[in-house]
Hints:
Order of helices and strands: EHEHHEHEHH
Number of strands: 4
CATH class: Alpha Beta
Mean pLDDT: 95
Amino acid sequence: MGFKYDVYMLCPVRKATEEEKSFLEEYKKELESKGLRPHYPATDTIQKDETKGYRICMDHCKEIDESETVHVYWNGGSTGSYVDLGTSLFEHYKRGLDIILMKRDLIEKIVKQQEKENITKSYEMVLLHLDDIANSRTRIR
């Protein structure tokens, strides 16, 4: 199966900080410089939505389905990222979609703090596990 996108960038859009936006724009440019076709929702998905967000959610589902991999910039304060992660998890289950962290070190710090607080499961822990799986087999980094 051919994919429309090599990489779907799962990341905050509405609540992204200026620092995050700058990082994500550079990340997209870096992927493009490697000849890859990234999809960055902030610029590549129409953000005006008369359905109050429903169409954007459906667009993201389609875009993830049309992507060979998902690269995640995780910000737990981004509620839309949870929807995209759920879609990505289903695609991982269904077809083995690789889910890769853009900034693994940040997630590792969060997980270390969670472990100190005796938290035994979290989205961040799931993301680390998915990143481990993807790093053992992915073609797109």
